[in-house]
Amino acid sequence: GTAGLIKLALECVTPPVFHFVSSVSALPVGEAGEERIYALSPKEMAARDGYGQTKAVGERLLFCAAKAYGMPIVIHRPSVITGSSVSGVSNTHDFENHLLRACVLAGKAVQPTSFSLGWICVDTVADFIAGVAATATRAGKLEEDPKHEAAAAQTHQARSAEGDRSRVHVYHLNGVGPDLSTCVAELRRAGHTIEATKPEAWRGVVESLPLDERLEPYRAMLAGIRWPDPGLVSVSHTNHRARSVAKELGCPGFERACSPDVIAAIVAHMREVGFFPEP
To answer: What is the pLDDT of residues 60-90, one digit of tens each?
Structure first.
């Protein structure tokens, strides 16, 4: 795991730059996170699911290694990584893809809603991480969340003891969409009949779907979606630093996943592999 990789890196005469692919799920819920290190409180950790908790713990392990040994680290926090912007090849285990599949199976989707899938294309993420990794000097000085006084005190002590040798850089690779309505429109263009349904009726729609091997692990989560009202703007984490670096590296735009051609390519791939049934 992460701890084992940290130990391996520290066996080097000069610790290499450690790149950690985290997630925006490691950030406090309902807060516009910044590109810096956070120390989640027990209450904030409890608000996260197991996936987000493991990412948050991984970040803290690296933070401690940076403080204690001066190991430079780069933390990449993507949002929902979706398919390739070129081929549309995407992960059929992603929750968001199962949501689209449920809409196809039921022939219904919640509309109107401002529900966003938060996609960012996998090739955008890969190009960014590879580009930053090729420029190891991008690791900057260690930053700590000032809201957590205890952690800030520990940071001050560590800096005094270690001569401020520790370095870390954080990048947010978070997409802004597309919203569900945009994806449903593309499914309709692909020939699927999907009617609008109200948010309060969605649970019944999902629970009434026939037994399905692929659906079962996700059925409860799909049924429990909390649908935001139309026009509501989702909390978006700041990513100014990441966007600036992406521009320097010539990476595809973070909004690429919102374009109709990319959504169409993803839908086509899902049909090709049999994840979406034919219309």
So the answer is: 999 999 989 989 999 999 999 999 999 999 9
Q: Provide the H-helix boundaries in 70-142.
A: 95-106, 122-133
Q: Are strands 18-21 and 73-78 parallel, antiparallel or unpaired?
A: parallel
- Which two structure tokens, joined as six digits, stand for 200? 């309060």
Q: In whole angstroms, what is the distance from residue 70 CA to residue 203 CA?
A: 50
CA distances from 185 to 67, 76, 89, 105 (A): 49, 32, 20, 15
Model-level pTM? 0.85
Region for residue 43 given its phi and psi (left: phi exceeds 0; alpha: psi -120 to 50; beta: otherwise): alpha
Would you say 236 and 174 are in contact if contact means Cβ atoms under 8 Å apart? yes
Interatomic CA distance for residues 2 and 254, integer angstroms? 27
Nearest to 94 by CA among 234, 226, 214, 265: 214
